Amino acid sequence: MSKGKMVAVCVWGLVSLVAVAATYKLWWVPRGERIAAEQVAQEKFDKETQEQVVLDSTSSNSQYKHIIPVSHDWFTGYDILRSSENVAYNRRSEIKLTFNDDGADGVQRLKDLASGKTQVGVFTIGSLIKSCAEGGYAPEDIPVSIVAFIDETRGADMAVAYKKTFPNIDAINHPETKLVLIGNSPSETFARILLTNFKFSQLPKDPFIFVDSPKALFDHYRKSSPEDRYVYITWQPWGTKILDNPNAHTLIDSSRFKGYIVDVIVVNRDYLYKNPDVVQTIVENYYRSVFDTKDTRVELAIKDAAASGEPLSQTQAEALVDGVWWKNTQEAYGHFGLGNQTLQHVEDMITNLTRVLIKSGSIKSDPTGGRPNLLYFDGVMKKMHAANFHPGFAPEAVRNETRTLGPLDESQWGKLIPVGTLDVPILVFRRGSYSLTDTSKVHLDGLVKTLNTFPSYYCLVNGDASTKGDLDANQALALGRANAAKDYLVSQGIDKDRISAVAGMPSGQTAVRFQFGEAPY
Predict the structure, then answer these.
(1) Neighbours of 215 (CB within 10 A)
(2) Long-range CB pairs of 306-311, under 8 A, 24+ apart, other chains included
(3) Which residues on adjacent β-strands are paired with residue 513?
(4) Residue 208: which region, alpha, beta or left (left: phi > 0; alpha: psi -120 to 50)?
(5) How many CA atoms lie within 13 A of 371 on its CB side?
(6) CATH number of this structure's domain 66-152+260-386, picked from the four choices 3.30.470.30, 3.40.190.10, 3.30.2130.10, 3.20.20.70
(7) Are the beta carbons of 512 and 477 closer than 8 angstroms?
(8) What is the pTM of this model?
(9) pLDDT of the residue at 39
(10) What is the pLDDT of residues 80-129, one digit of tens each?
């Protein structure tokens, strides 16, 4: 064989050897590894299949067709939703509610609902609006709808302080005052209601001290002294714990206004769209439970509080239950515009709260884009109302939202206990006149809404005038301006018995002041 042929053969042999080696490495070895992996996977599958067969053969089908996670916190107002009565009704409907405690973090609660981590949640309406704004949701992307009412606090939320430093709400108007509260909670809504409706021109731009729990707020109070300018805004039973101190008192509580601190049930929109019958069953079962527990609320509050790890005494539970209005079926119908038309509509609540949050600087703009109807769905309650749903045999009473104030005589008006001065824009009058301008009427229209929202206070209208010229004429002009404002308010539906016009010695201002007061008995 020639030398050239031998070289060619060697080269060919080397190439073949490399090819064989490559084939072995790239195909044979992976094939072996694949076969081994497939064998392991098959063995695992066979084992899991056998385990599942054993499990299926020794288990039963769940009694529940729907297991629904609920976002909540341990506010006692939600205790009926967690009650054994509600559990039993839902069990019979093959529904199980599981509860996810998010520590009352509204923004996180909305995220959980938006992502589908939870399908149902509870909110105060104010917290829901703020969470939508802080979450940056476009109006069409708001992930939940209000479908039912839970409760309204009528005394369970409160502002408490030392009597010596804060005899009334007007005393809050001081540059050193601080409001101590839990942020993004009903207490913050409460604070912003005060900031929006009362005149606090001297209050700091940022008057808040935020704490992370009611216990932290109570600890802050225990370290304070009567001379400190702290106002504590909290809820029951923590308010009662502070009021155990005889030097403390309630400046104002949620019994003094309506439609602001209201709890509702919300549902993920996608879940609501796909499962309307399930949602309706949940709502109906809830109102059945409200009916069944109407006479055992104190016992339920004590039991629920013990489960939360923050037990209540009998006295504390009674005070809490007395300050919460759990909405019954007929009242829920009314708030959705069905049945009793005297109750405040959910859309008006949303509008009022949005105004409060914007005016007080809590949010920059309306997350609904001026369409409050995007936040609620009345279809569930409409179906219940059309079917004449009622949870029991006894009738349910619709409570009067407005406390009737009797007339006061001149002596009683003179002894009216001052509560707070309202934040009303200066009324414009022509020089030497007490005729209201169109601008003044617009300002008074806003005051009508405030008076209707705070139905339990009398209102004193105090006119003022220039000090120049004839004193008697100026005083008569001041009284005429006060009466003009009063007469307009009465013409817009304000009860004449709860409003009075007066004029003191002219101070040089042309303003008309509006002050809330309480009867001297």
Answers:
(1) 11
(2) 307/82, 308/74, 310/74
(3) 462
(4) beta
(5) 9
(6) 3.40.190.10
(7) no
(8) 0.82
(9) 79
(10) 999 999 999 999 999 999 999 998 888 999 999 999 999 999 999 999 99
pLDDT of residue 485: 96
CATH superfamily of 410-518: OmpA-like domain (3.30.1330.60)
Q: At the fourth CATH level, which superfamily is domain 157-256?
A: Periplasmic binding protein-like II (3.40.190.10)
Which stretches of 79-134 are assigned E, i.e. beta strand? 95-101, 120-124
| Structure tokens that stand for 512 in this block | 């008309």
Stated as kind and residue range, the H or E segment containing 452 is helix 438-453
Range of weakest confidence among 170-179, 309-318, 378-387: 309-318
Task: Give the residue carrying structure tokens 């009242």.
Answer: 331
Distances (CA, A) of 364 to 128, 199, 281, 361, 425: 15, 21, 37, 7, 21
Angle ∠(20,24,29) on CA atoms, nearest 5 = 180
Same fold: 66-152+260-386 with 157-256: yes
For the chain, what is the mean pLDDT? 89
Q: Count of CB atoms within 10 A of residue 169's CB?
A: 24
Domain locations along the chain: 1-59, 66-152+260-386, 157-256, 410-518
Q: Are 260 and 193 in contact (CB under 8 A)?
A: yes
Instruction: Please answer whether residues 298 and 321 qualify as being in contact, where contact means their C-beta atoms are separated by less than 8 angstroms.
Output: yes
